[in-house]
Write a structure and sequence with these properties.
The structure holds two protein chains of two kinds. Chain A is an alpha/beta fold. Helix content of chain A is about 60%, strand content about 10%. By secondary structure, chain B is mainly α. The termini of chain B are far apart. The chains are: A alpha/beta, B mainly alpha.
């Protein structure tokens, strides 16, 4: 067992056994109540972290989903006579359903629009819970009876253990999910939705799934919440709870299960902190010292005292100052939340646990996890042969942007096994043509046939599943994933284990194979030494090569390279030519868009020249270079 | 149902809707330059209105309160720009959504503690009798509201079209990088847009407060409706917001009358979600072509 495995699993085991044994020593019901809440909020925040952390969206609906789950669980007990676990399942299911309903329209959106959609969902949900008095008792509140288990009546400790057990299960299941291809897909679509679709990983499907899982956990936590307080009021699930939940995730640390746990602990302790002046003052002083320390560290690194460094310190100064002069901290609690959130978002964007995990893995030297041995290339890229005359056949393809004829009546055949060059001056329609083939745009008219079948129109995702892969002229890497993970996201026919089994942790072997395959492809393009670096930290040349490795993970029949040599230094261009040759030897047909004529002359079997959206010449590189129309398009008329 | 009553409900709703349109106009101003909006805009309106009320209570005359209140709005807008939006954009992230929510929360809590949680009446400079037009009663304050909304939007549009500053503004909206290469400071232009947006919001608060009263809760009620208007019309739709604003105001007044006042907010929110689902660019907005 590796040191990393022992440390992560050991600490988790220690945490949960400590939490489980606490009721044996503590008989104080108040403390036990806090621990129960900790487990409940833990479940809720792990769910929220899927959207806020992995999908990278500001999700303002989790408090409403918690409320909906709470009401659903309670009403299923009173009206349908459900038992304890059935009621929890009901909360979970209702959260899931509402998650999907909300996700379908909202997830086509990004950034502010997504935040708005979820914000209005919360407003609608609390209004509806408040106004449907015949069902929910409206503003006067709903009393909930907690059904007992078949083994007997719930004790306070018993209920706590149930909550803790659920937290542990959710923790394990979510860790399995988020460390699998699902978690990678979530992060990939956050960084580049277009590339995610182009790599055959359905953006929409994964976004809906991620949001639905997060919402279902919100609903489950809601059920526990209802049985814990046994009294519900609609307005307690509104804006304030939402802010508190966000505070928990952000302060604890995004993309981190421990972060969700620490965030939950903070949420539980906040009311106590605020009601006791001495505690609150010491808390404010601690916050100020952290801010000062972090600011000092940053200043030492950057040699610059920017506003970004000052702002968290100012916020914490304001908090500490306020703590000294203000007695009614309860009345100011929203401002206190605001100041804390502000300081964390600006000063410690990775959150407490994000910071701690990074530090700890430095101390214990956990930065490199071991990689499996690479496979032979022949096993990852199976040699392809084709009996067809034409792999790709484009007929009379047109695409107009308003009055601009970007592609105007283009007909083209690509022969299997060849490297087909596509050149032309800037704005001649090369990239538009590629975007039409790969499904980013729908053609105004014309047809495209691939392997004798018409290509799906206007869907990157569907086209990628026919066996066409592409790279992007403007890099579309998954910047926050490592080079290895970038390739792993795109692997074709690799992930066959269904989600339920993955949640149970059955994906280990599949995962190891995926890593080995991805490493093979990185080695093929010569960047396997940088496999564990984040894509954004790679040098530019390596990023271009990573795009190619990622496209190869699709095991394409047709690979479209959109200006792979753009911006590369001369030695890198030579390496690139060598790599493209090796790819061709695997029987992969290539369309190469390029401005470097030496690259085109060296590699291409046939070249098509575009100008003004029309084909002006086709032929071998030598013929093209002598063609008077081509010379005119590049250099203009002789004087 | 008597037709005049329905007409009355529609007209007074539509007039309030002009205020939603004005706050939404504030969103458009900042969205144009920085592609960001202030999620705490409602709190900004509320705080500026409460501040103006305090000015009146200190004995300032009405005509002096208006510019001072708007100046306060400018200060708040600039504060939001510096402490939330620019900080987040420097980190090159979508963090501005969270940051503006946070500042809004801070404003809200401060207002609660400084001015109290109750709603306060806001004096109107006009006598309270109403004018009957085709059997529909319209108060002088409502007329002033309509005039004020159109006046300030018209004024800003003229500034945008006739002055060099306005040209810079348009340039930054069209292409921030290109504008910067031409020597226009994008930073100052974004600051200007937030300042203007703050002034517009403060003015909106002063126009609506005599009709609705003013208190901390006004923030959340206003912001959701302004969001709805801005998104349904489109964040770059220009005067489309006026139409949508009036429509939304009328619809929610009808909903409140027929279904119950608790449901008042729901039509706008449903419209918002529908618009986001069906036409994210808005009814009058322009759809952008994806480029790679």
């Amino acid at each position: 067992m590796s040191k990393r495995w022992l440390l992560t699993h050991g600490t988790e085991l220690a945490l949960f056994s400590a939490l489980a044994s606490l009721p044996l020593f503590i008989s104080n019901t108040y403390a036990l109540g806090l621990l129960t809440l900790l487990a409940i909020y833990g479940v809720c925040l792990i769910g929220l972290d899927v959207t806020v952390g992995y999908l990278g969206q500001v999700n303002l609906a989790q408090s409403a989903l918690l409320g909906i789950g709470a009401y659903a669980a309670s009403l299923s007990v009173t009206h349908l006579g459900f038992g304890f676990f059935a009621a929890l399942a009901c909360g979970f299911g209702v959260g899931l359903i509402f998650g999907v309903i909300l996700a379908l329209p909202a997830l086509r959106l990004d950034g502010p629009q997504f935040a708005l959609a979820t914000l209005s969902f919360t407003a609608i949900a609390t209004t509806t819970l408040n106004e449907m008095e015949w069902l929910t008792q409206g503003a006067q509140g709903l009393h909930v009876t907690r059904p007992d288990l078949w083994i007997g009546e719930f004790t306070a400790a018993g209920f706590y253990w149930v909550c803790l057990l659920l937290l542990a299960l959710v923790w394990l299941a979510m860790r399995n999910m988020l460390q699998s291809q699902w978690g990678r897909a979530f992060e990939a679509l956050r960084d580049s939705p277009i590339a995610t679709d182009a790599m055959g990983v359905g953006t929409y499907r994964h976004k809906v799934a991620g949001f639905a899982v997060g919402s279902a956990l919100g609903g489950l936590a809601g059920g526990l919440y209802a049985f814990n307080f046994q009294y519900l009021q609609p307005h307690s699930f509104g804006f304030e709870l939402m802010i508190i939940l966000l505070l928990g995730v952000v302060l604890g640390g995004r993309k981190n299960l421990w972060g969700a746990f620490v965030g939950a602990a903070l949420i539980v302790l906040l009311p106590n902190l605020l009601s006791n002046p001495i505690l609150f003052r010491s808390f404010a002083v601690i916050g100020l010292s952290i801010a000062l320390f972090a600011g000092w560290q940053k200043q030492r690194r950057q040699q610059l005292f920017t506003f970004q460094t000052q702002a968290p310190i100012m916020a914490m100064l304001l908090l500490a100052g306020g703590a000294l002069f203000i007695d009614n901290t309860e009345d100011w609690r929203k401002a206190i939340f605001a100041l804390m959130l502000f300081a964390v978002v600006v000063g410690l964007p990775e959150g407490l646990m994000g910071f701690a995990t990074r530090r700890l893995s430095q101390i214990f030297r956990l930065d490199t996890s071991t990689l499996p041995a690479a496979w032979p290339v022949a096993e990852v890229l199976v040699l392809q042969t084709s009996a067809l005359d034409d792999l790709l056949e484009i007929q009379q393809l047109k695409h107009y942007f308003g009055g601009v004829r970007a592609v105007d009546d283009v007909s083209l055949r690509v022969v299997p096994g060849q490297i087909h060059g596509l050149i032309g001056p800037n704005g001649s329609g090369k990239s538009t043509l590629v975007n039409l083939i790969t499904g980013l745009y729908s053609p105004t008219s014309g047809t495209i046939h691939f392997q004798g079948q018409p290509l799906p129109v206007g869907s990157l995702y569907k086209v990628s599943h026919t066996g066409i892969a592409r790279t992007f002229q403007n890099l579309q890497l998954f910047t926050e994933l490592s080079a290895l993970e970038n390739v792993m996201v795109a692997l074709r026919d690799q992930y066959r284990i269904p989600l339920p089994l993955l949640l149970l942790g059955m994906g280990k072997q599949q995962e190891t194979n995926a890593r080995a395959k991805a490493l093979t492809l990185l080695a093929l393009v010569g960047i396997d030494a940088q496999a564990q670096q984040l894509a954004k930290d790679l040098p530019y040349g390596a990023q271009r090569l990573l795009e190619i490795a990622r496209a190869l993970a699709r095991q394409p029949r047709l690979l479209i390279l959109d200006e792979p040599a753009a911006g590369l230094a001369h030695p890198d261009v030579i390496r690139l030519v060598e790599i493209i040759r090796r790819i061709q030897q695997r029987g992969i047909t290539i369309i190469l868009i390029e401005h470097h004529m030496d690259v085109v002359s060296e590699l291409c079997d046939i070249v098509t020249v575009l100008d003004g959206g029309k084909i002006i010449a086709t032929g071998t590189p030598d013929e093209i270079k002598r063609d008077p129309d081509v010379v005119k398009a590049y250099l203009g008329e002789p004087c | 149902m008597d037709a005049t009553i329905i007409a009355q409900i529609v007209v007074s709703g539509a007039l309030i809707g002009l205020i939603y349109a004005l706050v939404a106009y504030g969103f458009q101003l900042t969205y144009a330059t920085s592609k960001s909006i202030n999620f705490g805009q409602g709190e900004l309106v509320m705080v500026a209105a409460l501040f103006s009320l305090s000015l009146l209570n200190w004995g300032l005359p009405y005509w002096l309160m208006i510019p001072l209140g708007m100046l306060f709005g400018v200060v708040l807008g600039l504060f939001v720009e510096r402490a939330a939006v620019r900080l987040a954009l420097e980190q090159n992230s979508e963090g501005w959504i969270l940051m503006t929510i946070i500042l809004g929360l801070f404003f809200f809590s401060s207002a609660e503690n400084i001015w109290g949680r109750d709603d306060h009446p806001f004096p109107s400079p006009f006598v309270s009798d109403s004018i009957a037009l085709f059997g529909i009663d319209i108060t002088r304050q409502e007329i002033a509201l309509a005039v004020g909304v159109f006046a300030i939007m018209g004024l800003i549009e003229v500034l945008m079209r006739k002055t060099l500053l306005g040209k810079a503004f348009t340039a930054v909206s069209a292409d921030r990088d290109a504008a910067q290469l031409m020597g226009i400071s994008a930073r100052r232009t974004i600051m200007l847009s937030y300042g203007l947006s703050g002034a517009v919001c403060a003015f909106a608060g002063m126009l609506v407060a005599p009709i609705t009263t003013v208190g901390p809760t006004m923030a959340s009620a206003l912001i959701l409706k302004a969001f709805s208007v801005a998104v349904v019309a489109g964040l770059d739709s220009g005067f489309g917001i006026v139409l949508i604003g009036m429509l939304l105001g009328a619809v929610e007044n009808l909903a409140s009358f027929y279904i119950g006042s608790g449901w008042r907010e729901v039509p706008g929110l449903v419209l918002l979600i529908l618009a986001l689902a069906l036409r994210p660019a808005g009814i009058f907005g322009k759809t952008v072509i994806r480029k790679v």
